[in-house]
């Protein structure tokens, strides 16, 4: 079952025209949300980022997504697809109508899909350094969708080289993010993460880690670090809505792991 513009329909009944602007121009965005134990994890943060993305793309944000019953409907969708205990919900929003580059309207259509999932592994990552692409900061780089091809190509390089993930740098050779995760590191009890204008996504768990650290009195810095500076960290970890994982090696070079801090974050944010 799908949820299309607020209505439940079987997947076989979904019909989108060839003039669909998501298909023709990538004119929209998406959000990935974890459903866990009958709850939408970090729903308020996801909703805030979707509103910001819609504003950036000059889309009228659908009222059906901000209605009081939307959470209940999304959880009903999870139940219909046997994903209420743990599932991966994808909410796609795109500009309605057809047209060429100049749109006919700023109204938006949306679609929610969900599939059952398994808990993400917590084993440390062996990551490579991406050589084929760089991140590119823009008005669109903080949310998911407009730059999707960049991450597809990074994923292709990851597959070819046999790494778990790839470290993406920007055009100034500054550390930005991983393919589908933000990156953090500890150095002398200070928690670091790349600044948003390195071109990284403004991740939901990234926001929650920074919020937690502020409440815990941990010093945080959003920075512009090169690779050599990163390699001097006391520990490095990645994070996204699926979980938090330590980094064990970068291009085959071992780095220090502080699994106790990572486990603390998992307990604070995911349980």
TrEMBL record:
It holds the Pfam family Aminotran_4. Signal peptide: none annotated. It catalyses: L-valine + 2-oxoglutarate = 3-methyl-2-oxobutanoate + L-glutamate; L-isoleucine + 2-oxoglutarate = (S)-3-methyl-2-oxopentanoate + L-glutamate; L-leucine + 2-oxoglutarate = 4-methyl-2-oxopentanoate + L-glutamate. InterPro entries: Aminotrans_IV, Aminotrans_IV_CS, Aminotransferase-like, BCAT-like_C, BCAT-like_N, Class-IV_PLP-Dep_Aminotrnsfr. Its EC number is 2.6.1.42. Belongs to the class-IV pyridoxal-phosphate-dependent aminotransferase family. Its cofactor is pyridoxal 5'-phosphate. This is branched-chain-amino-acid transaminase. GO terms for molecular function: transaminase activity. Keywords: Aminotransferase, Pyridoxal phosphate, Transferase. It comes from the Bacteria. It is an enzyme of class 2 (transferase). Pathway: Amino-acid biosynthesis; L-valine biosynthesis; L-valine from pyruvate: step 4/4; Amino-acid biosynthesis; L-isoleucine biosynthesis; L-isoleucine from 2-oxobutanoate: step 4/4; Amino-acid biosynthesis; L-leucine biosynthesis; L-leucine from 3-methyl-2-oxobutanoate: step 4/4. PROSITE patterns: AA_TRANSFER_CLASS_4 (PS00770).
